[in-house]
Amino acid sequence: GEFNLKQYVDGIIFSLQAQLNDKKIKVNNTIDESIVLDSYPGIFSQIFSNLIINSIKHAFDNDKDNVINISMELTDQFIIHYQDNGKGIKSEHEKKIFDPFFTTKRGQGGSGLGLHITYNLITQQLGGTLKLIKVSPHGLGFSITLDPSIIKVKHG
Predict the structure, then answer these.
(1) Which of 1, 39, 94, 154 has the most C-beta neighbours closer than 10 Å?
(2) Rounded CA separation 18/107 (Å)
């Protein structure tokens, strides 16, 4: 179905607002307001929920300037950028971050499935790619590359 990506992501952020407020996390969603996708909104919902919940659970311990940035770029590809300025990930965990059941919060309710499911949704269901990005000076980012043919309306 068709949906406005920025509005849709705003709705997901709103639904997680209580958890975001608990950790004093501000989310900046700068996705272009005119982008309408013809795709599976439920899949996008799971992807963004999983990424945000992953940041809430793992990225932020302290109470200052916790930020998640969600943005996009459109060239010959359609790329969605997700970044947090949390504590990042240890190098030895990088290769395993998308593995099933990998979690650094074992015994604290971490199933280790969030990013694995996200990876499968993007690569299998949407035919895209998901890459881990190191954010400077610290933090974690993901870049989701999708086929621009799912974009139906772009004004401006």
Answers:
(1) 39
(2) 23
The model's pLDDT over 124-149, given as tens digits with 9 standing for 90+, comes to: 999 999 999 988 778 999 999 999 99
Closest CA to 65 of 13, 28, 26: 26
Put simply, whether the predicted model's pTM sits higher than 0.90 gets the answer yes
Question: What one-character-per-residue DSSP string does 48-117 give?
Answer: HHHHHHHHHHHT--SSS-EEEEEEEEESSSEEEEEEE-S----HHHHTTTTSTT--S-TTTT--S-HHHH
pLDDT in tens, 87-114: 888 888 888 988 888 877 766 666 677 8
Please state, in angstroms and as integers, the Cα–Cα distance from residue 140 to each residue in 8, 41, 72, 84, 88, following that order: 23, 24, 16, 5, 5
- The DSSP element (H or E) to which 141 belongs, if any, is strand 140-146
The residue type of 145 is T
Sign of CA dihedral 103, 108, 113, 119: negative
User: How many C-beta neighbours within 10 Å does residue 121 have?
Assistant: 20
